[in-house]
Amino acid sequence: MLGPLSSQATSRALQDASMYGKYEQWMARYGRVYTDINEREKRFNIFKENVAFIESSNKDAYKLYKLSVNQFADLTNEEFKASRNGFMGHECSAKTTCFKYENVTAPPTVDWRKKGAVTPIKDQGQCDVPANREDALMKAVANQPISVAIDASGSDFQFYSSGVFTGTCGTSLDHGVIAVGYGVSDDGTKYWLVKNSLVFKSFSLVFL
């Protein structure tokens, strides 16, 4: 007869086998080929930890967003940050220019996708949109899509899939996105609608 320890070992072996099957399916989907068996096993362990993190996060009923296994599932968060977040800030001119949308009244909601004007954008940077002023950004986005920088270093952002992102937002601006709208969700949560083409190649509903 198998004792408790043997049963636990068998259960873990079955779980690992099931996870390895998911890993191989993921490798096939994203065309992953590793240089040797050691690298393959290393990436499997990272994949397994990331899947556990994603599943744990998605069980949180209080989160308004979901994570999913994507092309970055075999990367640690440090590797993800190093490989994807390449935003380089720029210095503003010493001359302070007037904010041209200062006297604009921003509507309650904006979605430039519906107007077919998402791709052509003007890089406003931090010079033309007053820093730390949400009302200024709303006025600017009401008139055109705006390039902005965000802190995309967290694991939640790495695996973000859908919903209003209410995860932790830092202040180390390391990733460029395009604000294409804003609004309020059914439960009253304010959000920015962001095109995050460098990471997900789709539109993301993000709360900043």
Can you tell me about this structure?
It comes from Malus domestica (Apple). This is Cathepsin propeptide inhibitor domain-containing protein. Residues 23-80 form the Cathepsin propeptide inhibitor domain. Keywords: Hydrolase, Protease, Thiol protease. Strand 5 (175-184) and strand 6 (190-195) form a beta hairpin. The protein has two domains: 5-61; 77-205, Alpha-Beta Complex (Cathepsin B, Chain A), CATH 3.90.70.10. With 208 residues, it is of the alpha+beta class. The protein has five helices and seven strands, in the order H-H-E-H-E-H-E-H-E-E-E-E. The protein starts with a helix and ends with a strand. Strands 2, 3, 5, 6 and 7 form a five-stranded antiparallel β-sheet that branches. The chain has a two-stranded antiparallel ribbon with strand order 1-4. Mean pLDDT is 79; it is low at 120-128 and 198-208.
